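Example 3.
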Amino acid sequence: MQEGEEMMRTQVAIIGSGPAGLMLGQLLTLAGIDNVILERKSADYVLGRIRAGVLEQGSVELLQRAGVAGRLHREGLVHHGTDLSFDGDRLRIDFTGLVGRHVTVYGQTEVTRDLMAARTATSVYEGEDVELHDFDGQPWVTWKKDGVTHRLDCDYIAGCDGYHGVSRASIPSEALTTFERVYPFGWLGVLVDKPPVAEELIYAHHERGFALCSQRSPTRSRYYVQVPADEKVESWSDDRFWDELRRRLDPATAEAMQTGASIEKSIAPLRSFVAEPLRFGKLFLAGDAAHIVPPTGAKGLNLAMSDVAMLADALIEFYAERASAGLDNYSAKALSRIWKAERFSWWMTSLLHTFPENGPFGRRIQRAEFDYLSGSVAAQQSLAENYTGLPA
Ligand code: FAS
Ligand code: PHB
């Protein structure tokens, strides 16, 4: 190491301070396993990203295990079902009645805030040029901050740095197999301080495109409309957004909608993506670093939670018993659940969005899918068990 460089050591180096990295760090710290989180952005920047809104029961249980569910239980909104709207026809999926499970609406921002507040181990924010080294042998990580190069030696590296992170990019391409479907549209999302239009979420299919009515609290709502993949957020005034949203909803809901000035407006691209395998020597991938789902099934954040629950248990087993079965099985076990969530997210996206390239036959198939769902308890149970979260 040259002048001005610093060297540190830990058991697990975690790249990324999003929900995956923070949850993994919290579970390891509670188990007495030393860990350091390296994040390239500031904590405020991470908290400023508006993303997911729905937690599966399993994610709530994990937040309880992590000791950070207090505010979630006070402020989270328990939902026992959701509404589907198809060209104005409504169908309620009764989660509790069909499968005895529910979901909780609680923004990813709040999950991140609660995990950051609980963290007692070291987190490095605004760490530039993070690099992973020798993760096939004795791994170490370097980064730059305030002109000083830092080095962190570790036993394992957890790549929790999202789709655009450095971890997956550090793996030799010949060692990785990726699977991807990019959708020809994105979601234009708006956050507004107005009461939600409905008690539960409304997923709407309309010939003009998909729309979603979600929420963050009794006074704050989150809405989305499907837009072309190359759409620019600058071309969407608030008025244009509200007009378009109303046109995609049934008249009663459109009429009841309370609109106002957006406090956040952004476009998220939609893709399905999986990288295999999730382990390379001493490097493990988890969360969006390993997979991406279209947000239609509300799976992204929840998959990140189940990945790190499995990885934490494997690392805890290793340090407690020097047994590596959990680490050796992590990739296969996580991928089995990931692919089922990928399937469900693709299915919900295929049902509810417009695909002009599929033509009149494709539209009839979507209608038939909705009509079958409307008439089949078994089909509704399948949707309910996937949406509320398959067993880990
Ligand atoms: P994250 O991307 O949240 O966190 C990764 C962290 O790593 C970031 O803080 C990043 O700054 C950091 N990082 C990246 N590169 C780094 C480097 N080289 N060095 C150090 N740190 C680095 N899911 C839903 O369920 N519903 C939604 O509505 C929804 N909307 C979304 C909208 C957008 C625009 C995006 C991108 C995702 C959305 N998701 C949604 C999915 C989202 O919630 C993810 O599943 C969730 O953030 C996954 O968490 P992490 O795996 O921690 O990844
Ligand atoms: C959200 O509230 O942001 C949300 C809810 C459900 C989804 C996607 C996003 O499927």
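Residues 52-54, 201, 214, 222, 295-296, 298 surround P-hydroxybenzoic acid (ligand 2) (CB under 6 Å). The CA atoms of residues 128 and 239 lie 40 Å apart.
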